[in-house]
TrEMBL record:
Cofactor: FAD
FAD-binding PCMH-type domain ranges (all copies): 42-212
PANTHER family with a match to the protein in the record: BINDING OXIDOREDUCTASE, PUTATIVE (AFU_ORTHOLOGUE AFUA_1G17690)-RELATED, FAD-BINDING PCMH-TYPE DOMAIN-CONTAINING PROTEIN
Pfam families: BBE, FAD_binding_4
Originating organism: Paraphaeosphaeria minitans
Official protein name in the record: FAD-binding PCMH-type domain-containing protein
Kinase in keyword set: no
Keyword field: FAD, Flavoprotein, Oxidoreductase
Tagged with keyword Oxidoreductase: yes
Gene Ontology molecular function terms on file: FAD binding; oxidoreductase activity
Family the entry assigns: Belongs to the oxygen-dependent FAD-linked oxidoreductase family.
């Protein structure tokens, strides 16, 4: 059958008793707003957007697309740069109306609807003196970050976001609504934690919260490029000196208004100003050209990098890994290459290369076989966030980012090959890669089990927009 307005009128009738919205291109501004994404490069013209408000709505819609062989995607926060939350001609199951957060203060748990953003979680949890392990930008979706793993400022103390996930409510490819946890549908829960977008529509997440009654010391120090060797020297001490309460992000970028190269460091200490300043004192002594650090409530922390990560423009994440110590000449060469490329076009200067030095001691306590997520090893994440405007640059930007990250990872002590993927983690963060990357590179030894579970829970490969766990495509008629 074709995906026609008449067909979607039937879907709208099926959802009539709910508050769901069924939007077609003929619905003007509401439709146009519904297909906007964090990256313009991921905006596609769906034939229908269904803004669901409940798991029942999700079940109804999944059954409908399956019956009518309509290709579809699921949209949470709309922050992905892989294009997996957008589709040309098919249907979008949009969770953006589902942003509720409920805190159980006695159990210290936080239940979050599938379309919530991290700002929703941070603000509500703070009312109870709690925090969840979130990301580093608060307008990202809870679902995307969690299903792919989730590194954040609290990972040094409490592990990954997915390590703090207690339970999910999921609508499967059959339309069945199920609960998955360590004690209910445990095999599905294993798969959800790292490969969730391949298995269903997750309509709620329940997290373990952690006491966070006090403000934190955080913010950026910005240096001129000549300070790079000294900044790297300090970074090399971080592995030995942190106690899990600190994070340091080191970035290369050319921010407005000057669009000139700078060294960006984003600092975090879960404690007092005096403690934080003392820990990072060697950096302060270098004479930053800008000091944006201060004490702040934890719920404001994940907004620190929002300005440079706003909507608009074409964007693409890329991922790699590195080990400390890093040789300053090697980092200088990366700086020169990255800045040279990102200043070769006037619309690429806000691109950033980021060394995410988030302590991994708690992360590696969980074996890679414990869940689908497989990026656990004694290394840190390396990322690029490329930003540009001209569609003609799409391929060039992608090829540059992939090549640079692969070479940088290998030179920084993390060989992304089969031997390392078997002995340690895969050396690449799944949330930073595109779906065309082979499953073995994202999931390592877990890829085989994931393919088997995919056959159990989604044999027709209805949820086919994540890293491909099976090579047999589902046949659809658009």
């Amino acid at each position: 059958m074709g995906s026609t307005p008449h067909m979607y009128a039937r879907l709208k009738s099926q959802l009539a008793s709910s508050n769901a919205e069924v939007l077609l291109p003929s619905d003007g501004d509401k439709y146009e707003e519904s297909i906007k994404r964090w990256s313009e490069h991921c905006e596609k013209r769906a034939s229908c957007v269904v803004k669901i408000t409940s798991a029942v709505d999700a079940s109804t819609t999944v059954k409908f697309v399956k019956e009518n062989k309509i290709p579809f995607v699921v949209r949470g926060g709309g922050h992905s740069t892989s294009g997996s939350a957008s589709i040309d001609g098919g249907l979008i199951i949009d969770l953006s109306l589902m942003r509720g957060v409920a805190v159980d203060a006695a159990k210290k748990t936080i239940k979050v609807e599938g379309g919530a953003l991290w700002v929703d979680v941070d603000v509500e949890a703070a009312k109870y003196g709690l925090a969840a392990v979130g990301g580093t930008v608060n307008h990202t979706g809870v679902g995307g970050l969690t299903l792919g793993g989730g590194y954040g400022y609290l990972s040094g103390k409490y592990g990954l976001t997915v390590d703090n996930l207690l339970e999910v409510e999921v609508v499967l490819a059959s339309g069945e609504q199920v609960v998955a946890s360590e004690t209910s549908n445990a095999d599905l829960f294993w798969a959800i934690r790292g490969a969730g977008q391949n298995f269903g529509v997750v309509t709620s997440f329940t997290f373990q919260g952690h006491p966070q009654p006090n403000p934190v010391f955080a913010g950026a120090l910005i240096f001129m490029p000549d300070k790079l060797p000294q900044v790297v020297d300090f970074l090399n001490t971080f592995h030995a000196t942190n106690d899990g309460n600190q994070v340091m992000l080191l970035g290369f970028t050319c921010p407005p208004p000057a669009n000139a190269p700078v060294i960006l460091t984003q600092l975090f200490h879960n404690g007092t100003h005096e403690e934080g300043h003392a820990f990072f004192k060697p950096l302060f002594d270098l004479g930053p050209v800008a000091n944006l650090t201060s004490m702040m409530p934890y719920e404001k922390l994940n907004a620190c990098m929002n300005e440079g990560q706003g909507f608009g423009g074409r964007k693409m994440f890329g991922g790699g890994a590195y080990k400390l110590p890093l040789a300053p000449p090697f980092i200088q060469a990366l700086f020169d290459e990255f800045i040279g490329f990102s200043t070769s076009q006037p619309d690429m200067t806000e691109s950033i290369m980021l060394f995410e030095t988030i302590p991994y001691k708690e992360v590696v306590k969980v074996p890679n076989e414990e869940m689908a997520f497989s990026n656990r090893g004694e290394y840190y994440n390396l990322a690029t966030m490329m930003k540009w405007v001209d569609p003609a640059l799409d391929s060039r930007v992608r090829d540059f980012s992939r090549s640079l990250l692969k070479r940088a990872s290998q030179a920084a002590g993390v060989q992304q090959d089969e031997a390392v993927r078997s002995a340690e983690g895969v050396g690449v963060y799944g949330n930073y890669v595109n779906p065309d990357v082979p499953a073995s590179e994202v999931y390592g030894r877990n890829a085989k089990k994931l393919a088997e579970l995919k056959q159990k829970f989604d044999p027709d490969n209805l949820f086919d927009r994540g890293t491909r766990l099976v090579t047999r495509p589902v046949v659809v008629v658009n």
